[in-house]
Amino acid sequence: MSASTNTQLWPTTGDSPIDWEHVFESQDQGLIPLINKTKTRNGLRKSVRTIIHSMFQRKNDDKNRRKFEARLEELLPNGDAQSDPNIENEKRLLTELLREIKEECQRMAAEAAAARIDADEHASRVFAEVCSDVVQTYFDALQGGIDPDLVTPLPFILSPTFAEHFKDALRRYIIPGLTTRCRGMIFRTGHQPAARRREFLENLLQDRKEGPALRDFLGDGWRTLTSHQQLPPKPDEKGLFGNNQEPGQLSLEEWQAEVVEIEKANALSEKFWSEIFQPSEAYLPPTDDDRDMLGSLLAKLPVRITKKITAIRQMVEQADENSSIGRTFDSYRQHRDVDLALLSVAHQRPDLLLGEGDMLKVLLKGCQDQVRQVSFPLVLRYMSDHL
């Protein structure tokens, strides 16, 4: 028999790594037609045994290997005499055995494919959860220590309810588009045991390349979704003497197709923003002015805002009657955006900034109105009663 038992040479299909129907039944190279060309019982026995060992060579195939070897022994015992030259009956029986082996290979391939799909789907869900966690770490830094019952409703950015609302929108509008760009990351995650996939992906995102890459992808997805696209200019109509289309200019049909796609994208963007801006009794909703700030949550590392919050708290805690805290704060905020950090500290530690001494007012005392409007829009919006 000249049938190849090297699985790397066997044909494949889109659904299974190996096309088992072709391997066994192909008239030119199939195992069954080639077996039926064998001339001796000894040749039949050796060929089928080789096939069994090739089909079931992994450790967890041991049960199948023993089962089909036992069937071979029943159909063609090792000590069978060579007296009868007619082996057509044995060929028929072994053909049936090979078809049983084929069906078992197909069943195992289907199970493996289903398991692969399940693993991919689970890895994709884990990926979506971990992407949400990337954003949640920033909310955690801002909201840590805030009593949600102390101020009701809270500014949206300090509200756990808004954080969940925002992450839900990301999961529905942006994260699905990342699965293609992050296919390799998800594929590697899916090859881990189910219980370890989340830990594996979290560790992967600690990598100096993978972590920033994911944030870049999130940022790209955000910009693609939230940017309002302008329609391209309509091309000139065909004149009386033929096509007036300039080189590189869209045809009318191409322009119409592009307009449809842009209008779909703009409608999706408007739907997303309408959800983000929707009123809530649980928090003060964001406004149109907050678009860029919300987008930055996907790109910024929480360690930066944490450092700013810590610096402001320490600055106020260490202040005394003789210290010029206003000047110190004014110096610190130069070349830094501390609006969000100051808003967070005012809610994390109202005893420091809003209690006796009116420290929030002291910190901003040296800022002219124009500077306050540019540098502290959130503080002015939500803390104006304390200024």
Give structural notes.
The chain is mainly α and 387 residues long. The protein has three domains: 20-76 and 87-115, no CATH class; 145-232 and 254-291, no CATH class; 301-386, no CATH class. 62% of the residues lie in helices and 1% in strands. The chain is built from 19 helices and two strands. The chain has a two-stranded parallel sheet.
Secondary-structure map with pairings?
Layout: H1 20-25, H2 31-35, H3 41-55, H4 62-75, H5 88-143, E1 154-155, H6 160-173, H7 175-181, H8 183-190, H9 197-204, H10 210-226, H11 252-276, E2 283-284, H12 291-296, H13 302-317, H14 325-333, H15 339-348, H16 350-353, H17 359-363, H18 369-375, H19 377-383
Helix pairs in contact: 3-4, 3-5, 4-5, 5-6, 5-8, 5-9, 5-13, 8-9, 13-15, 15-19
Features:
single chain, 387 residues, mainly alpha, 3 domains, two-stranded parallel sheet, 62% helix
